[in-house]
Amino acid sequence: MRPIETRYARSGDVRIAYQVVGQGSFDLVFVPGFISNLDLQWEDEGYSRLLKRLSAFSRLILFDKRGTGLSDRVDSRHLPSLETRMDDVRAVMDAAGSGRAAILGASEGAPMAMLFAATYPERTRSLVLYGGYANFHRWVMPPERLEAFIETAETAWGTGATLPNFAPGRIDDPHFSQWWARFERLSASPTAAAALARMNAGVDVRGILSTISAPTLLIHRRNDVRVDPEASRFLARKIPGARLVEIAGRDHPVWTGDVDRVADLIEEFLTGEPAVADTERVLAALLVTRIYDTAKLGDRMWSERSQRFQETWRLLVGRHGGRAAGTHGELMVSRFDGPGRAIRCAAALREAAQQIGVASAQGAHVGEIELRGQPVGLTARVTMQLASHAGRGGILASRLVADLTVGSGLHFTEAGRISLDELDEPLPVVHATSEQPSGTSLPAEGQASRAGDADGAGKRGGEPDRRRKEQRCDRRRAQPQRTHGQASRRQHPAQARPAVAGGGGGVFGQAHWPGRAMRAMALLGEAARRGRALGFSSCRPGGFRREAPANGG
After folding, report:
1. Nearest to 515, CA basis, from 493, 531, 535, 540
2. How far apart are CA 66 and CA 152, in angstroms?
């Protein structure tokens, strides 16, 4: 993607940095949260994904609020009022040639967006508030917690120390943690961060809510770690005609969690049409492999073994028909066309880790991912969390993986359910143990026949051979006779050919007997029902598709 041009708008004596991207039929102004940086935000996968989605149906206007990112700093001794900062929105719209726009306010940007909509109703096409609030101390932080936050900002700013306050679910993601530390440093200085926190603490716009006349959509995560969901419920009661949609998740920033779900809701609200399915997304199986040092090997030996394992990982992933999709520190992500391949590769990687002398834990899941680039979004994050829940040497998979590999010879044991931040319901999971022994995949008749054929090849004639033949005949008489129409192929009655991913992300399978086909269809139906809880509809020619967001969330 070519670099986005950054320009500056004058708001009084302050310069406000802004960008314009997209060529949609209407303008959408994004008012960011606590801190921002116009250049750095494009480097984060989730942030850039959100902005690309929004700019696909609008002319998106982005800016850094005064005191943050590329805009001028504020005097910490003379903090500007909310009205002054709100006027920065008007200045940016004027500079970008926007007479009327939809306003998207996220987190701390929501009070500014609400005040703008109440002050300039003729310039507000509609209003979208994500994770918003009307009073800081009531729904974000009481005074004592605010002081503790400011102390952290003044002593550890730039190290990523504030990440637990905003996105605790991403703490174990080293790539995101490093980006967040840079995000802190390049968005504000420690002094500026403390000043911004004090400015936000004075926010109270409860008195103007009833004057907002623009159509309003409220989006809030049910377990938001920073802003109490009651804040949006209060806004829904006080803003005339406002509609509230609560979504799953705990991490607060709008560009974390299920970004596509947020973008779908915004697009449908602003355009009046359901979001168009993204043809650049396919159904795939993801495998996340995590290695760690339990033997206290020392930096040098651990580095050597880690590098050796990563080389082996790439080799085994390719050997099992997969693609190495990227690494995040000691996390290695690979993608496969079918879940069976992913599980077999995981078993091979577990054995390789034992031979190299490192501990491993792996997670496997099936879901939609980007056709190009590294897997991001809900499917990738769920798979990473499965890997983090897996024990040493364990392969923890979603129950959907087991359902889609029925008849493949893979063996799973139930592991209960685990609660994940971004899912509405606990996720059923299984342990992948081992492949079933080859002898157990054939009925007794097939086993006996093969054993007898092998014996007969070694010895021909004589009394032992005659007795073996008689024993085989007795066993055959004891077997129930096949009825008319049954297949003669010797195969386990519950065994069907394993499902594989087809073109466009679809999943296809074959079963040799009608009964097996019916059982396989029943299993796939159950998998589809479970898939719908993760945002997919049932199988159709061409693959799975994301469900359009239902009215009311």
Report:
1. 493
2. 22
Q: What SS3 class is residue 24? A: coil
For residue 330, the tally of other CB atoms under 10 A from its CB is 17
State the DSSP code for 40.
G
Cα angle vertex 265, ends 238, 134, to 5°?
30
Burial of 550 (0-12, 13-18, 19+ CB in 10 A): exposed
DSSP secondary structure of 416-478: EEE--TT-SSPEEEEEEEEEPPGGGGS-HHHHHHHHHHHHHHH--SHHHHHHHHHHHHHHHHH
β-strand pairing of 243-247 with 124-130: unpaired
Residues 91/72, Cβ–Cβ less than 8 Å: no
Residues 447-472: tens digit of each pLDDT: 333 333 333 333 334 444 545 555 55
Residue range 521-534, pLDDT digits in tens: 455 555 555 554 45
Helices (H) and strands (E) in the chain, counts: 17, 17
Q: Which residues, in sequence order, are bridge partners of residue 273? A: none
Domains, the chain, ordered by start: 6-140+203-271 (3.40.50.1820), 281-436 (3.30.70.1230), 443-478 (no CATH)
Q: What is the DSSP string of 163-198?
A: HHHH-GGGTT-HHHHHHHHHHHHHH--HHHHHHHHH
Hey, how many other C-beta atoms are within 10 angstroms of the C-beta on 486?
A: 12
Nearest CA-CA partner of 108 in 132, 72, 139, 78: 132
Eight-state DSSP code of residue 210: G
Q: How confident is the model at residue 281 (pLDDT cuts 50, 70, 90)?
A: confident
User: What 3-state DSSP class applies to 285?
Assistant: strand
Supply the DSSP symbol for 243. Answer: E
pLDDT band per the 50, 70, 90 thresholds, residue 505 = very low
Q: How confident is the model at residue 270 (pLDDT cuts 50, 70, 90)?
A: very high
Q: Which residues, at least 6 apart from 259, have a Cβ–Cβ distance to it below 8 Å?
A: 46, 49, 50, 53, 377
Q: Hey, what are 299's tokens? A: 């930096």
User: Does residue 495 surpass a pLDDT of 60?
Assistant: no
Q: What is the pTM of this model?
A: 0.65
Contact indicator for 216, 127 with CB cutoff of 8 Å: yes
